[in-house]
Amino acid sequence: MDANRGKEEASFGIPQAEHAWEEYMGFLTTAKSQMTGGLILDIHGQAHPERWIELGYTLSKTSLNSGIFSASCSSISHLASQLVNVSSETLVAGNRSLGKYIEEQNNSYVCVPSPSNPSPNNGSYYSGGYITKTYGSRSSGTVDAIQLELPQWVRAAEERPRFCKALARAVMKFWQTNYCSQYNHEFLPC
After folding, report:
1. Each residue of 63-117: pLDDT tens digit?
2. What is the pTM of this model?
3. H helix intervals, 34-125
4. Torsion over CA: 56, 62, 66, 68 (sign)
5. How many C-beta neighbours within 10 Å does residue 17 have?
6. Which one of 24, 75, 158, 174 is at 20 to 30 Å from 13 when CA atoms are compared?
């Protein structure tokens, strides 16, 4: 079962897979309904030849390549609406982006989008799937979402502990920089 798809595609008509999909989506729906705001990170693995970390905001590869996009039409649209003096480019690919904070942790971690790679150009790129589109704030709500597509090398046993710590630090920096002016959560300190 692939939860990052609609029910039919995710479960192949297998009743047990359909049930698992329904339970997972039910959990996400309930959790989101109980939150006054927040950020969902939908983490996956990919095997693209570029070996970079792909951050999906439901912005197409074409939009990122053109440099003409709006975070208000992305899975972080609620964040964008709260930070009216911060440009879409800054939030998605600039100095306040998750990509910047991940790359700061280790020079080997290359992200798209980020200040060093604001767009995928001709490279492979996942823009965000079912969960990011459905549960992010693209069309409504106060919960944002970002899909992280991790290359195999950061998931490998020898790199995974280092990367997990680096990702946790990067997410905290992204949260503190962009969300702390809006929320005072007991789970994520500001």
Report:
1. 999 999 999 899 999 999 999 899 999 999 999 999 999 999 999 999 999 999 9
2. 0.94
3. 61-66, 77-82, 88-93, 98-105
4. negative
5. 16
6. 75
